[in-house]
Design brief:
Length: about 300
């Protein structure tokens, strides 16, 4: 086993306290690397840690740390070329920061997803809307926590939003125009994966108007979180859904993350729409799902370090 510490690379100041607490409780040697202010030597051939855990958030730009998103792409490439074992490496982070790439992956695997157009200007949003019909969603390509997702129920509503300059395409000026699928039971399902295998699943009930579905306690306390809170319950997805998600994370290179899907109320199909390389664990996990997922995560990290 390497004597060098584990590096925990993160941006949000609060989300990772439970992870750090579990590492501290076990006296695991680790270092904190803050993605919002960091540098590296591109000529370096080695680093001072045994394992690099990428927990960078695609929503960093909401906290004034958008530079960290673009920095992370090159940094992960550097680390991997140095031979470092990276948890959620460059392939995973590329998908985390591009909903368009996520849908292309789903298509390549033959996995259903909502009818979508990818656009880079507001004129094309109107064209896409005419093709897809209403209701629909407009989503920034780089999102996180439902940021910037807007529902439109008519062409008049959409055009007014564009004319008034209210519609934001996101920090890369790329957006998805996507059909709005009615979710059976009024909920989406988030399936958490660890080491390529099923960890747990929850149903998150939504009004269809608010798209910040983060179920973690820190998200509930965030001023941008849904005002009325979220109703969340544990569930057991069917085997064919878990098989599909195992295939997704394997091809995405995601070591720890989640995939979200819903059941289309019109025909009962499972439709997949979001792949997360950074996913906050559900609040009150021992009560809700019967165990603390941070314990399982640190178990996994220690096994990965021991294998280096």
């Amino acid at each position: 086993m390497s004597s060098r510490p584990i590096a925990i690379y993160y941006e949000h100041p609060e989300w990772f306290r439970p992870l750090f607490a579990e590492l501290d409780a076990r006296r695991v040697d680790y270092v904190e690397l803050k993605a919002s202010c960091l540098s590296y030597d591109p000529a370096a051939e080695s680093v001072d840690f045994s394992l690099f855990v990428n927990r960078m958030s695609a929503s960093a730009y909401l906290r004034g740390n958008g530079q960290g998103i673009f920095f992370t792409h090159s940094y992960l490439t550097h680390l991997q070329e140095c031979g470092v074992r990276v948890i959620n490496g460059n392939r995973a982070f590329a998908l985390e920061t591009s909903k368009a790439l996520q849908l292309r992956l789903l298509h390549s695997l033959g996995i259903p997803f909502p009818n979508t157009r990818v656009v880079n200007c507001t004129d094309e949003i109107l064209v896409a809307a005419a093709q897809l019909g209403f209701p629909l969603l407009v989503k920034p390509n780089i999102g996180g926590r439902g940021a910037g997702i807007v529902r439109f129920d008519s062409s008049e509503q959409l055009r007014a939003s564009i004319d008034q300059g209210k519609l934001e395409l996101g920090i890369d000026q790329v957006a998805l125009v996507q059909e709005l699928i009615p979710p059976r039971g009024g909920h989406i399902t988030r399936v958490e994966m660890l080491g390529g295998k099923f960890l747990y699943a929850i149903e998150v009930f939504t009004s269809g108007e608010d798209f910040n579905l983060c179920p973690a306690e820190i998200c509930r306390n965030d001023p941008d979180a849904p005002k009325a809170g979220l109703k969340v319950q544990a569930c057991a997805p069917p085997r064919h859904v878990i098989d599909a998600i195992e295939k997704i994370v394997a091809h995405a290179g995601i070591d720890a993350g989640s995939v979200e899907y819903l059941t289309d109320d019109r025909d009962g199909r499972a439709v997949f729409y979001d792949i997360n390389a950074l996913s906050n664990f559900v609040a009150e996990a021992p009560r809700l799902i019967g165990f603390d997922p941070h314990v399982r995560l640190v178990d996994y990290l220690e096994r990965q370090r021991e294998s280096q």
